[in-house]
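Input record (Table S2, row 266):
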Amino acid sequence: MRFLTTRRRHRAAKPLLLAFALLVMGAFYVAVSPAPQVSADAGTSGQVAAGKNLFAVTCSSCHGLNGEGTKQGPSLVGVGAAAVDFQMSTGRMPMAHPGAQAPRRVNTYTAEEIAALSAYVATLGPGPSIPNSSAYDYSKLTDEDLARGGELFRTNCSACHNASGIGGALPEGKYAPSLHGVEPLHIYEAMRTGPQQMPVFSAGAIPDHDVASIIGYLKNLEKQPSAGFSLGSIGPVSEGLFGWIIGIGGLSLFAVWIASRGARAR
Ligand code: HEC
Ligand code: HEC
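Output record (heme C complex):
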């Protein structure tokens, strides 16, 4: 009898655990999968009009009806499509609560909505545009390029983002976030638009190929276990969530493994 009841428990537990593990993996995939590519620059007039409407509803309370800025938010004239794409794709805008710094969050807007808003803001004044993926392609870099990427990173970025890219505190409660797991597109856009205290790195200062080298260097850095996820770092919430989900995912897989071993042992 005892044999039978324990068997039954195992039979129900296994699929349940599997389903849970799959759910966690799904959530993990949604959290880290890249947002669909958009090329918003040559915005159609319909897209610009849609963006203007959405802007009036979602953004104008802080940035003004024509993006001219208010006490609550800076002018967006000349920040370019890349700034909107960066700020919205990384979930920083629309800012939820006024504060020292808009934190990175999960973006809840569709690619179409972001493309429309980007196209609209691009009409306010010339600014950096959303690049094609070829501009920051880091798949064909040589070892020399990667070494140069590391050099450029240490010279231009590590003062704020730490030599291992895990980020660091800045004065007045602000911080430079961790760069681990950031989309190549968003690294490119951050450099060209200079969010918050981050300086703008224009194409004149750091041409596209060098941006790609920095991205390649950062992606290599992520692969080195010692450089990643240091628990004491003040990285953004997303980093903690990432670790949490991986931890839970690992635990569920471990539980499934134990369940299957338990069943076999009997
Ligand atoms: C609650 C107020 C608020 C709302 C709503 C808001 N923003 Fe912002 N936005 C800010 C503040 C404050 C900053 C500057 C501080 C920062 O970047 O963290 C900013 C910065 C930006 C920047 C960066 C500008 C630059 O110089 O690079 C962009 C782009 C932007 N917002 C776009 C938007 C868009 C698009 C929306 C609507 C979808 C929006 N914002 C909604 C307050 C707001
Ligand atoms: C003076 C300090 C400073 C320097 C130098 C600097 N950054 Fe930043 N960086 C910041 C701050 C502050 C933010 C956060 C902006 C925000 O939250 O709006 C940031 C944000 C970023 C982001 C966005 C990350 C995310 O979580 O979405 C990337 C990518 C980035 N920086 C890359 C770089 C690279 C690459 C360099 C060197 C070429 C660099 N930064 C140099 C201060 C700096």
